TrEMBL record, chain A:
Pfam family for this entry, one: Lactonase
Keyword line: Signal
UniProt lineage: Bacteria, Pseudomonadati, Pseudomonadota, Alphaproteobacteria, Rhodobacterales
Protein name per its UniProtKB record: PQQ-dependent catabolism-associated beta-propeller protein
PANTHER family, per the entry: DIHYDRO-HEME D1 DEHYDROGENASE (PTHR47197:SF3), PROTEIN NIRF (PTHR47197)
UniProt keyword annotation of Signal present: yes
Gene3D superfamilies to which the protein is assigned, alphabetical: YVTN repeat-like/Quinoprotein amine dehydrogenase
Signal peptide: 1-22
InterPro entries membership: Host-pathogen_enzymatic-act (IPR051200), Lactonase_7-beta_prop (IPR019405), N2O_reductase_N (IPR011045), PQQ_b_propeller (IPR022456), WD40/YVTN_repeat-like_dom_sf (IPR015943), YVTN_b-propeller_repeat (IPR011964)
NCBIfam families linked: beta_rpt_yvtn, PQQ_ABC_repeats
Residues that span the membrane, as ranges: none
From TrEMBL, chain B:
Record family assignment: Belongs to the leucine-binding protein family.
Region (Disordered): 390-409
Location of the Leucine-binding protein domain: 81-218
Keyword tags: Amino-acid transport, Signal, Transport
Organism domain of life: Bacteria
Protein name: ABC transporter substrate binding protein (PQQ-dependent alcohol dehydrogenase system)
Lineage, top ranks: Bacteria, Pseudomonadati, Pseudomonadota, Alphaproteobacteria, Rhodobacterales
InterPro entries associated with the record: ABC_transptr_sub-bd_PQQ (IPR022478), BCAA_transport (IPR051010), Leu-bd (IPR028081), Peripla_BP_I (IPR028082)
Species this chain originates from: Rhodovulum marinum
Gene3D superfamilies: 3.40.50.2300
Biological processes annotated in GO: amino acid transport
UniProt-listed Pfam families: Peripla_BP_6 (PF13458)
Length: 325, 409
């Protein structure tokens, strides 16, 4: 596999003026029960491998050696070798794991269990459950602060962002947001937290620089000719310099581009159908969107803020992660 | 169950190896999760049990905790949120025969309860609404009666259950979308059946379908099921359905569950059946899985040991409406809750893919309607292309100009 990747890189560098580093892009296909692997230099499909039942949340270890997939209907996390696509082992997750976040060091893994109102903390080395943290009803979105002191969980029916202390596993703060919060994303400097509310149709911008977290602004969306009910923010990604925020707007088939300074929407990019989650390449040149109802991913040129192409993947793509350099 | 687990988890957080300790601007230690004094939210769920025969299908056999189980899960959901807000929820549940309703209501009012979720028919709902103290609020979780949303509306009565008109509109929209617009209407002879027939006629007029013919299936009483009764049904029903004008679909208006289940495959002409059986417009189906509904189903099944019915969903939703209003306003009195839910701020996620809100002209909860074949969700209305200047959801049921309600002005 490695030689093939290298060959691709070689090919790419000879064709293009600026050399592009190829990274593997892993897309979980919720319905297809597979993970599709793409090459970030050529956007060709390298492989598609079985990933358990109803794979949704997907992430990769900081050293790129382990790929984690929430196999929701198997009630566990499956761990794959990103080179051979062999399953290495599984991790206990609690029932119906949907989304998770990895500690920046690669250990532990914080998992949202939708059916049990719990966040499960799992040691990725010993494969032991370290803690179960009771949260609101239907926990979903997970994020960890850049300094790793706080894990965020959003609960879809309680409509809160829960701030969990990573040392004590106690909830230290709750922020009420709009209906059905799906995803949480910190800025790299840890000053802001973006929380999307799918049914509420908003993204709450939570200011973390004060004594307590405060909602500084709610970003709303408006596209001429699209019913406001369908502008449902789900996945959110922020560039590492904080200048741009991208939000997947679900059934409206759009990704909103938001100015990270003013938190105002700058433009909307038309992507595939039911756009769900987003993933940057490590150099942040590209953003990949999973489009659940058109069975493809759209590739966004981040600097140009344009969709440059779409690539067919497996059935009902859900999550995406790109291997580190 | 949830609470027990929750408290267990709270008491024994375990420490992991230390990660990076940076300077986060949050003053973590100074933040308290629970306010010192808790606010108690008291409400009651009242279900009226009417004398009735057994249903046509064993799958619909009555269950003891119908509706009440949904309310219990809703209360649990509210309590989980309340834990973070410093609010506790106390929901009293009662199931009474119609004759005992007034006394039960009076007793609960006497205990200071002012928030009521009621599963009853039109007459009993009106009696309660008229007998209620001025500072009480009643949420209708069962009746679809048109008059309650029109000339007989009450300012203290909000409707969580969809109206008959919403259901009929949802179904006819789908049939029009399919271009199956010639409808043959078979209705029962009881008042509830006739009301449904009216709703279907109105829906056909509204969306450009045509009721090409009608027939009444008279309720002659008797038991619903007899041993090898299918033999007679197979011979008699086709004859009853003979000599009909050409039609695409048979619409069954059977609000009292005595004949519709027999129609599919027993017609004279081959045609799909919709309405009370076949393709059925519902607020909830135990098979519904979209928009996170699977989580609701499993949560309910774990609690009740059975699947979730419409009455359970409607009671759950009513209790959640109260909970959401309490969470957002910090108040637990009926006036504040009513003002909040009828105001512009209120919206609630209800596993239907878009927020549910209230119509300010008659207190009806706007909601998508599922079209279920009993095994799967076939479609969800409003259908594409049925537009409305306010919200596509307002293409279902009594729109503002159609409703004679003035109590909300």
């Amino acid at each position: 596999m490695r030689t093939k990747t290298l060959r691709t890189v070689f090919l790419a560098t000879t064709l293009l003026a600026s050399p592009a580093l190829a990274n593997k892009v892993f897309v979980s296909n919720e319905r297809g029960n597979t993970v599709t692997v793409l090459d970030s230099a050529t956007w060709e499909v390298l492989a598609e491998f079985p990933a358990g039942n109803r794979p949704r949340g997907i992430t990769i270890s900081p050293d790129g050696s382990e790929l984690y997939v929430c196999a929701s209907d198997d009630d566990l996390v499956r761990v794959f070798d990103p080179e051979t696509y062999e399953e290495l082992h599984t991790l206990p997750s609690g029932p119906d794991p949907e989304l998770f976040v990895l500690h920046p060091s690669g250990n532990p893994l914080y998992i949202a269990n939708e059916d049990d109102n719990l966040v499960t903390v799992v040691d990725t080395e010993t494969r032991q459950v370290l803690a179960e943290v009771p949260v609101g009803v239907e926990p979903e979105g997970m994020a960890i602060s850049p300094d790793a002191r706080v894990v965020i969980n959003t609960s879809e029916t309680t409509n809160m962002a829960h701030f969990i202390d990573t040392e004590s596993y106690e909830i230290v703060q709750n922020v009420l947001v709009d209906q059905r919060p799906r995803y949480a994303e910190f800025t790299t400097d840890g000053a802001k937290l973006y929380v999307s509310a799918e049914i509420g149709g908003t993204i709450s911008v939570i200011d973390l620089t004060g004594e307590t977290p405060e909602i500084a602004k709610k970003i709303t969306f408006e596209v001429p000719g699209v019913q406001s009910e369908w502008l449902q923010p789900v996945g959110v990604k922020v560039t590492s310099d904080g200048s741009r925020v991208f939000a997947a707007l679900g059934p409206s088939n759009r990704v909103a581009v938001i100015d990270g300074e003013t938190d105002e929407v700058i433009k909307y990019l038309l992507v595939g159908q039911r756009v769900w989650q987003l993933g940057f390449t490590p150099d942040e040149k590209y953003l990949i969107t999973t489009n659940g109802n058109s069975n493809d991913v759209s590739i966004i040129d981040v600097e140009a803020e344009e969709v440059i192409r779409s690539v067919q993947v497996g059935q009902q793509p859900w999550g995406v992660v790109v291997a580190p350099d | 169950m949830t609470k027990a687990r929750a408290s267990g988890g709270w008491s024994c957080p375990r420490i992991l190896r230390n990660g990076a300790i940076g300077a986060i601007s949050l003053a973590l230690t100074s933040l308290a999760t629970l306010p010192a004094s808790a606010q108690e939210v008291r409400s009651a769920v009242l279900r009226v049990d009417y004398p009735s025969l057994l249903p046509l299908s064993r799958l619909d056999l009555p269950v003891e905790d119908l509706g009440l189980a949904g309310a219990a899960v809703g209360t649990e959901d509210n309590a989980t949120t309340g834990r973070f807000m410093g609010q506790t929820y106390d929901t009293v549940t009662r199931a009474v025969p119609p004759g005992d309703l007034a006394a039960a209501f009076e007793e609960l009012v006497g205990q200071g309860i002012r928030l009521f979720v009621v599963l009853a028919r039109e007459d009993e709902l009106l009696a309660l609404a008229d007998a209620a103290p001025a500072d009480a609020l009643i949420l209708n979780a069962r009746s679809g009666a048109r008059s309650l949303r029109s000339e007989e509306c009450r300012a203290n009565l909000l409707h969580i259950a969809p109206s008959d008109a919403m259901r009929a509109d949802a179904l006819v929209q789908f049939l029009v979308w399919k271009k199956w617009t010639d409808l043959f209407l078979v209705h029962g002879s009881n008042p509830a059946d006739l009301a449904l027939a009216d709703a279907y006629r109105a829906a056909a007029r509204k969306f450009g379908a045509e009721v090409v013919g009608e027939r009444e299936f008279e309720d002659t009483g008797g038991s619903r099921v007899s041993d090898s009764g299918h033999v007679l049904v197979q011979r008699q029903l086709p004859v009853f359905m003979q000599d009909t004008p050409d039609h695409d679909v048979v619409l069954a208006a059977d609000g009292t569950d005595y004949f519709a289940e027999h129609l599919p495959y027993n017609l004279w002409e081959p045609a799909p059946v919709a309405g009370a059986t076949g393709l059925v417009p519902v607020s909830w189906a135990p098979t519904h899985e979209s928009w996170g509904a699977t989580q609701m189903q499993t949560r309910f099944e774990k609690h009740a040991g059975r699947t979730m019915r419409e009455e359970d969903y409607q009671a759950w939703l009513a209790v959640r409406v109260i909970g959401e209003a309490v969470t957002r306003t910090g108040a637990a009195d009926a006036d504040t809750i009513r003002d909040y839910v009828l105001g512009g701020e209120f919206e609630l996620a209800a596993f239907k893919g878009q927020p549910v809100t209230f119509r300010t002209w008659n207190g009806q909860l706007r909601q998508p309607i599922l079209l279920s074949n009993g095994r799967m969700t076939v479609s969800v209305s409003p259908q594409d292309g049925f537009l409305h200047q306010r919200s596509p959801l307002d293409s279902l049921g009594l729109d503002e100009p159609e409703s004679a309600c003035t109590a909300f002005e």
